[in-house]
Amino acid sequence: MITADLLKTSDNQGSSCGDSSRISSGVSTDVSSGACSAENEGSVTSYSMSPGGQRYFIPTCGDLNCIPAKDMVFESLHKAYKFYKNYGQQSGFTVRRSTEKKNGENNIILKHFVCSREGFNNVNDGSCSNVVKRRRTVSQRCGCKAKIVVKYTSLDRFFVLSFVETHNHPLATETGRQFLRANREMSLGLRTLVFGAAKVNIGNNKSFSFAKELMGGYSNVGATLRDFRNLDRDLKCYVGERDGQMMIEKFKVMQETSASFYYAYDVDPAGHLMKLFWADAIGRRNFEIYGDVVSFDATFDTNKYNLIFAPFTGVDKHEKCVTFASCLLSHESVTDYSWAFGHFVKAMGRNPVLIITDQCAAMKVAVPAIFSSINGLVASKHRLCMWHILQKFPVKLGNRLCKETDFMEKMKIYIWSSNIDIDEFERGWEAVIKEFKLEGNKWLADMYEIRSSWIPAFFRDEPMFGLMRTTSRSESENSFFAQFHKQGDTLCEFWLRYQSAMDKQRNETARLDHETNSSIPTCISTWFIEDDAADLFTRAIFYKF
């Protein structure tokens, strides 16, 4: 629904465009005496000089049937306009509708179709204090008199009452005709291209360059870079203040289509969207299978409303990230996190065995409050994401220590290792701290105090231990979603890009499923158990042994 609505918004953008026609040379004698000559190579016009020194430019149209003539008859006003517009496209100028006269029944009986440079803009009175800005403001109006005037006849026809062929300005050359408004249109194909590119976070500049390569040249695109940008602007204007409402309406339609689609939202007293949670049928099904360990990452800034995007993520049978549900929150508060966690439990029907979050005081309160043993559910264990903590080391300790010495390499030996016990970790941590003289660092002391919440050595014997080491998972998921969103997105833009991200994630799962089902790994032993393992496990799991 959102896609269809947004593509409709640019139907009125620009003028309709015809194919560029071949132009041959020719000279009209419809002006006062003076020599005629081609103005420059590739020109579609010639000019004559009046006795007063004024130059008049005469279109040169190779197709004589496209040239208007007095008393020419048209079946309708639209056909008359279309004929003159086509003449302008071939001749190097743009046509616009102008003065009209109506009868007592409000029917048009006289209509002027003029060159777009007819008339003059309002004369600047010099009141603008910014001289540079006023000087750089250009006008295309120059009082051009070229036009046709059509008049209604009693036979429900229109005939050409008068035709002024000459212009008082140079006409567009063959290379310049692509920039005429009459020759520019954001066609459905171009709008679809721009819209599809936007869904995968490709901007207007790259979209325009890609269109040029597809069409074989800029002149074949049928639009300019400014037209591409204007389309993006028009889409945002169309969405306007209905951004949140359009997203909720989309969710309502999705729920009507699939009863398994779950969503919830909350608004402030002014009706502004403050919180939004959703989980589709595939995400809920994936949680049933892979939902023992869930990572909740609330570190994404998503849109112009400063809402926080936070996905609930797990690891599937191919050791790839899989998204169970997502939410948008206005604040990193206990209230907002509790609201999101509550709807997650309601949508999924149970608590995860383990939930992994970043280090946040609000989550420290919200997680045990919601993922508890209430209503007979098994309470979740709470652990901190190692990746987010490691990301803070250069910030808290400085780039010089972390990147120009072997401090991080030595520290990671004890942080990452799953083969050491608690005592060995504590001895190793203390040795590294002493070596680099960091005994007085408060942040490191704080991290050591909560070591049981993020160091693998403290939960190596727990079930699903392998999934708790989420360093690479969190980094992968963070990088994955970063490809599909940027700050300043509207909610509609965010949703379209989120769908693209989910399509990519789930298509990769389908590819890996096919690879597992359609191939047999080579066994290197004579043991039957290896053959059984090859049949039972996915390739990612099998190759770990």
UniProtKB/TrEMBL annotation:
Transmembrane segments: none
Domain of life, source organism: Eukaryota
Skewed-composition ranges (Low complexity): 14-34
Domain FAR1: 82-172
InterPro entries: FAR1_DNA_bnd_dom, MULE_transposase_dom
Domain MULE transposase, first and last residues per copy: 293-392
Identification of the protein by name: Protein FAR1-RELATED SEQUENCE
Organism per entry: Heracleum sosnowskyi
